[in-house]
Specification:
There is one protein chain. This protein is mostly helical. It has one domain. Helix content is 73%, strand content 0%.
């Protein structure tokens, strides 16, 4: 894998991980459309380390407050989080479905990078997102998210193991169906994704370590990929949170549906590389 390919894929990861358009779909389809060798799930998840860094930078103070409150200490001044003293344990419980799904279906997920499946999920979840965006009453702030809301959103996150779903897309959609405000839904989605991304990245690098680690000749490419995806991810998080305070998800719904239809159409005429 060349340095150019790594940088391109890192930018794709940084942009698509936090927007509701599916990073797994774009990372799986980019090599197919560009004629590159598939980079594999290990490299995909390695790039998640960069996006994990992005979350920790943007939400670092929030996570310190969440952890402190969960351990019975007072810290921070975020009013929404002060009203959620048990959020640490709520997020831990809501993360269990995706953890179980990841452990049980990791090997099968390797075989799910089919353009028809990816395209279908892009379209299907896009339509579902559009319905939720229109029908949700959006009268709940972050502090109003109940334990039941969190568990439903957490269960939805488990679907993100299927390429084309989008972790942020499916969790924001579930939150909107639970009548959470758009910006609050995105913030909760990002907080909920942190343990999942951290666990996936840790598992990937543990597997790499057992396999001998990153080859010396690829260390520069991996470092560049992590740095680029982290910087891109931070910019996208800040943009998306600001965007949702003023606009709906309509653009992302259209993007998913059109992109999904294009992928399905292309799949009829072109076989995946390799």
């Amino acid at each position: 894998m060349t340095l150019l390919q790594v940088i391109v894929l890192a930018i794709v990861q940084g942009f698509t991980e936090f927007l509701p358009i599916s990073s797994s779909a774009h990372l799986a389809l980019a090599p197919w459309l560009l004629g590159w060798e598939d980079q594999g799930l290990t490299f995909d998840i390695a790039l998640h380390l960069g996006t994990l860094l992005a979350i920790l930078v943007v939400f670092g103070r929030s996570w310190i407050q969440i952890a402190a409150q969960g351990l019975g200490m007072r810290f921070g001044s975020d009013g929404d989080l002060i009203r959620m003293p048990n959020l640490l344990w709520t997020l831990a419980a809501a993360s269990m479905p995706v953890a179980v799904a990841g452990l049980m279906l990791k090997d099968q997920a390797e075989q799910w990078r089919d353009p028809f499946l990816i395209g279908g999920m892009l379209v299907g979840v896009g339509i579902l997102m559009g319905i939720a965006d229109v029908r949700g009453r959006r009268n709940k702030a972050l502090a109003d998210v109940s334990f039941l809301d969190a568990m439903i959103i957490g269960a939805a996150q488990a679907l993100a193991i299927v390429p084309g779903t989008s972790r942020s897309g499916i969790t924001i959609t579930a939150a909107l169906f639970r009548h959470v405000d758009r910006a609050a839904a995105a913030r909760f989605s990002f907080l909920l994704s942190t343990p999942a991304i951290a666990g996936a990245a840790a598992k990937a690098f543990y597997d790499l370590h057992k396999a001998g680690g990153i080859p010396p000749e690829l260390q520069v490419q991996f470092a560049a990929g992590i740095a680029v995806s982290a910087v891109t991810g931070m910019a996208v998080i800040l943009f998306f949170l600001s965007f949702l305070k003023r606009y709906s998800l309509r653009f992302f719904v259209y993007y998913r549906v059109v992109f999904g239809i294009i992928i399905i159409a292309l799949a009829f005429f072109r076989r995946p590389a390799g």
